[in-house]
Amino acid sequence: MMKSKRLIASLSGTLCDELDMAIKNGSEAKCEFMKEAMIVYEEMKNGYLEMAELNIEISEMCCAGELSALNEYETKLSESENRDDDGSEKRRHILC
User: Between 88 and 76, whose confidence is greater?
Assistant: First the structure.
């Protein structure tokens, strides 16, 4: 069995009252309630870290698509450039 360590926490009066109400409604000891709260905290933390990785992957996929479209647009734009009658290069379109 793992060795237990004692944890002492100071809570504000309001938070302590809320903790007492939650325990009263659930009829479990503060110690057990806090253990469960720490387990839920760790699970949520891990979930957020996993979601962060997924969000990065999704945003990179979207950026890659946008970059591809931009490159295609710029290629078509450069191919559409003509020379003026006097031989100077001048774009015949307006960039917005």
Answer: 76
